[in-house]
Structures are given as C-alpha cells and as structure tokens.
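Render this sequence as a predicted structure.
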Amino acid sequence: MFTRWILPGFVENDICFNNKKFEIRWKVFGITLNKQRGNVSEIEKVYISLTGGSGHKKMPEIILAVGVHEYSFGRFKKGLTKKESLCIALEIRNWLGI
C-alpha cells in the first residue's frame, strides 16, 4: 500500500471479528483505504513478527495465517509494543481455541 511509505504516522488499523468472519481495515484520517476479509474458521495460526517500520525501526505486527495467505495489522501509527502485540495475539488464539 502506497500510504505505508508516505503517511505511516497517520495510518490506523481496525480489526473486527465475529463468529464467522474477520475484517482488517486500513484508514487514513478516518477514511478506509483498504480492507481484507476472511473466515475465522480458516485461521490456522496467529503470531507476531518484527518488520521494518518508519525509518527501518523494527516494529511488531500481528499475523493471521489463513492457508497460504497472511493478514497483518498493528504496525502503523504509533505501533504496538512487543508486549501488547503478544497479548493481543494470545487473546485471539485463546478465543479461536488454537
């Protein structure tokens, strides 16, 4: 996404789960620029990864592994700490029972 490099301090992630679906949204100034959706039942793994953030500073992001696809969130704006990312990933895994 182009905004990852231009406006990293203004990009926000929203993630929504219900019993069947999940959706990750990327927003800039409250406007949704991109969405990814998937089936909750197809999530095989939830983990964190350290990736390049602004200025090549490694930032944690949360990854949902769904078959051959990976959906990530949490590395934009201020970013999550490693501890926050681990806590969220654990909470999602517990909720999914994986």
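Summary. The CA atoms of residues 62 and 88 lie 8 Å apart. Confidence is low (pLDDT under 50) at residues 1-6.
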